[in-house]
Amino acid sequence: MNAKHRKILVAVFARPTQASIPFVEIELLFKALGGSVVEREGSRVKLELNGEQLRCHRPHPGKEAKRYQVEQARELLERLGVRP
Fold first, then answer.
1. What does the mean pLDDT of the chain come to?
2. Contact criterion met (CB below 8 Å) for 51 and 66
C-alpha cells in the first residue's frame, strides 16, 4: 500500500464522516489491500476483501461516495481489523 492509499484509509476512518472521497479511490484502496472489485449490472459494484463483501451503487452523476457508503466501507474494514 502506497502513501496515496494510506491517505484514503485515513480519510475513510475520519470523524465526522467525509462526503468528499471519490468512490474510485475507495475501490483502489480495496484492491491495494488485496481485495477485488466486481462489476455488476448497471452502476452496481461489489467490493470484496477477505471473504467480506460490500455491495453498493457507484454514485452518479457525481463521483464522490455518499456518507453512508464511506461508513459502510469503514465498518467492513473495522470488522477485518484494518486500521489507519
1. 94
2. no
Sheet with 36-39, edge to edge strand ranges: 36-39, 44-49, 52-57
Give the global pTM. 0.91
C-alpha cell at 76: 467492513
Give the contacts of 65 (CB within 8 A, at least 6 positions apart). Answer: 19, 21, 22, 23, 26, 59, 73
Angle at alpha carbon of residue 73, lines to 29 and 81, rounded to 5°: 80
Q: How many CA atoms lie within 13 A of 83 on its CB side?
A: 1
Helix, strand, or coil (residue 57) = strand
Backbone angles phi, psi at 69, to 5 degrees: -70, -40
Q: Kindly report the number of other CB atoms within 10 A of residue 62's CB atom.
A: 10
pLDDT for the residue 84: 87
Phi, psi of 20 (to 5 degrees): -115, 15
